[in-house]
Amino acid sequence: MKHAAVDSLEACPSVDTPVVLTLGTFDGIHLGHQVVLKKVAELSQQKHTVSAAITFQKHPSVVLRPDHPKRPIITLDYKIALLHRHDIDIVITLDFTNALSQYSAEEFLQVVQEHIPFQTLVLGYDARLGHDRVGDTPRLQAIADRLKFSLVRVAPEDLGDAPVSSTRIRKDIELGNLNEASRMLGRPLAFYGKAQAGQGLGKTLGFPTLNLSITGLCLPPLGVYTVKILDGEDSYDGVANIGKAPTVRDDNEVWCEVHVFGFKHEIAEHVLEVQLLKFLRPEQRFANTEALKAQVQSDLATAMSAIKEHGQATDQ
User: Fold this and answer.
1) Between residues 308 and 173, which one has the greater pLDDT?
2) 141 and 36 belong to one structural domain
3) Which of these ranges, 49-58, 60-69, 265-274, has the smallest mean pLDDT?
4) What is the mean pLDDT of residues 3-32?
5) CA distance to 44, 51, 79, 130, 185, per residue, from 23 (Å)
6) Is the pLDDT of residue 316 over 50?
7) Which of 16, 152, 260, 305 is the most buried (most CB within 10 A)?
8) How are the residues of the chain apportioned to helix, strand and coil, as percentages rounded to the nearest 5?
């Protein structure tokens, strides 16, 4: 079937075959998540049925630990796109509320079954469901027996001496360890979203930019990065400033401002994936726009040199 994404169980498209389902926060869609998704896709293909994933519009910690919520690694739109890339047919994004957090595992799965005819539930090794935090396989298996579905647990994906996890990835992102974060993600760390035209200052200085909103995300150290920009099947090299642009802005908002080599104005308003490849320098405030222009010209030359030398500007 064609890919579908809905924001409630009630809106889930009706299917006339049993569903292979997974559910979880899936923050980052990292290597551990990908093993789960691969199993879902394999079982779906074997059974000639539909694959589905239930996830959440915001990280559950926003509700469960409002004083210390976790910053998501990726936006909801990026999560949906990645789930579809990993052969999930239907993505259901639920609003994680206080009411939802009070459901027991069995109550929640019963509600899901009313809307999605799943016969197989695939979960990661540490997935926990419901207010009662049912996590052990015997108790979940008992629920599966009562509700008449098959339970499949997937082993962890280890990297180094520990399983890959969103917590590990967040720590590496915040420390600026791009290589480690990207290894666990199975792809370069990236921002994803609709590109917005900049304020026009970059164009007047000779380096027009496109902007992506990254408010609220788990961010690497603020600064200038060499990047690769994916626009559908097209890709471009470029430079991005991750930060507040203190020389020219005073709104204190953090943006991803991208200058694309061979800049094409028509990609404004396109959905872009901006992969961070190499850290060039920390963000700084300049005395004036002329000093900023000189530094950006230096950044562009450094990035171009790295691309010519290595083919791509990956962090070393």
Assistant:
1) 173
2) yes
3) 265-274
4) 95
5) 15, 11, 13, 12, 18
6) no
7) 260
8) 35, 25, 40
Count of other CB atoms within 10 angstroms of residue 189: 26
Query: Which DSSP state fits 270?
Result: S
Residue 105: which of 85, 123, 78, 80 has the closest Cα? Answer: 123
Element (H, E) at 230: strand 223-231
What's the whole-number mean pLDDT along residues 195-211?
A: 73
Structural domain boundaries, residue 253: 189-310
Check residue 253 and give its pLDDT.
82
CATH number at residue 210: 2.40.30.30
Task: State residue 134's pLDDT score.
Answer: 67
- The alpha carbon of 234 is separated from its chain's Cα centroid by a whole number of angstroms, namely 20
Q: Are residues 145 and 281 in the same domain?
A: no
Name every residue whose Cβ is closer than 8 Å to that of residue 41 and which is 6 or more positions away in sequence: 51, 86, 87, 88
Residue 158 lies in a domain: yes
Q: Which helix (H) or strand (E) holds 76?
A: helix 76-85
Report if residue 177 sits inside a domain: no
Q: Do 148 and 269 fall into the same domain?
A: no
Does residue 228 lie within any of the structural domains? yes
Helix (H) or strand (E) holding 83: helix 76-85
Residues 66 and 108 in one domain: yes
Tell me, yes or no, whether 41 and 126 share the same domain: yes
CB-CB contact of 304 with 248 (8 Å) = no
Rounded to whole angstroms, the Cα distance separating 191 from 228 reads 11
How would you classify residue 247: left for phi > 0, otherwise alpha for psi between -120 and 50, otherwise beta? alpha
Three-state secondary structure of 115-146? HCCEEEEEEECCCCECCCCECCHHHHHHHHHH
CATH of the domain at 45: 3.40.50.620
